[in-house]
Design goal:
The protein is mainly α. The strands form two sheets. A two-stranded antiparallel sheet has the order 1-2. The chain has a two-stranded antiparallel ribbon with strand order 3-4. The longest helix is centred in the middle third of the chain and has 23 residues. The protein is elongated. The N terminus is likely disordered.
Length: 148
Amino acid sequence: MNFLGLWARGMTSRPGRRAMDSIAITAPTDASRSGAGSVQYQLRQYAESTLGKSSLHEAVLLPEGESLDEWVACHIVDFYNHINMLFMSISHHCTDDTCPKMCAGESYSYLWRDGVNYREPTNLPANQYVKLLMKWIDEQLDDTRLFP
């Protein structure tokens, strides 16, 4: 199975193009809606069964006999969803006034450059930086040259 096949409607909870405007992220857990026999459903079940493990190494191991591409694709989408949920849960606290720059403490500042709208590295408020970053990630995930 290729990466794109995992993003078929109803198989993932990946937000659409308007992710930053309104996100409704729900991961189907009942077998009838998410295809109990599907590879993605089985991979999700395996991942969920390892979440409480004391060893992070054990939690991320590729299940025996599974495709590395499918395992990675499943986790990329899940990671994207979790980051979106985290951002949306804190975004009302991080405004242009309260978070005037994207930084990691005083020592590290992140500048945005996309080569199109921002040709030079540009200091942006954290909220705007994250929105642009999530939009860029969304475009990468939709690019069939990167994820056939």
